[in-house]
Amino acid sequence: MFAKPCEMSLRIKKLQALFDGRMDPNHPDWPDLVHEYKNRMAGYHGEKSVDFYLSMLPEADYQIYHDIRLLYGKYYFQIDILLLCAMFGLALEVKNRSGEIHFKRELNQAFLRKNGQEERIKNPVLQAKLQARKLNGWLQEHHFPNVPIHYLFVNSNEKTLITAEHGNEEILRNVCNSEFLIEKIEQIKEFQKIEKLSSKDLKKVNKLLLSKHTPDNPDILKQFHLSPKEIPTGVKCPDCRFLPMIYHSGTWWCPKCNAKSKTAHIPAINDYFLLIKPTITNSELREFLQIDSIRVASHLLTTADFPHSGTFKDRVYHHPVLQ
């Protein structure tokens, strides 16, 4: 059923690395980082929560894809959750924001009302509609039979109120709270009873979707006007988050809380891969972890079992995903 499960995106992992100790809170772009990180984490948890309801669907009938990103024409488009079956497809735009989301008639605008303030946000129904249209074009571009692609904005936050201005109630036909999602899918299924995709077509679509999916891999340092030299180096304490821990006799020691760890360097190396570049050498590792010994650095990289290339002297280690 879950052909592409819900996983934390590469963008969120990079934001998390900066948020969790690799960016100075006094940096002028820090508020922007915090805002984006919290919003994207909320979205991620919102998508995860929708899985509870989607898991109630018959496994044999549906293929479900989280965060699928495809090239159509010159540009990429991304769908939060895509459901595909023999009769239809369904593009879901999932939001997990507290407050009130209000749809106005004028220009089909959407507003978020919270704590006495109102701000315009992207209309999630129109977002879902656009992604459905692009998916339809993408499928035709790859010579698949014409299949109806429906769309929904799914609110996953139980504290959020959805309202529409008088005369704009029609838009609510493509809106539902997560607890009503299964009923919405069943309604579409009752309406779309003719099979458009054979089992062979579904297998081909599944293979193509997974092979053509291209994760968003942003230059996060450029986005927040950072240089690699501004990234704090060292190994973070897993208990108190202090930087840097000290390496001695095979163990990392925190001078602030006295915590000890043998594996605290692994998250630090992953931070390097995410923020600096997807490869690392012995000398680059020593500089980032703040250690002096070539032998110790070699031992840490070898035991971490990262893919590598080159001879011992010129060996380069690669991130298994980012390479």
From TrEMBL:
It comes from the Bacteria. Residues 42-158 form the NERD domain. Pfam families: NERD (PF08378). InterPro entries: NERD (IPR011528). This is NERD domain-containing protein. It comes from Neobacillus citreus. The lineage of its organism: Bacteria, Bacillati, Bacillota, Bacilli, Bacillales.
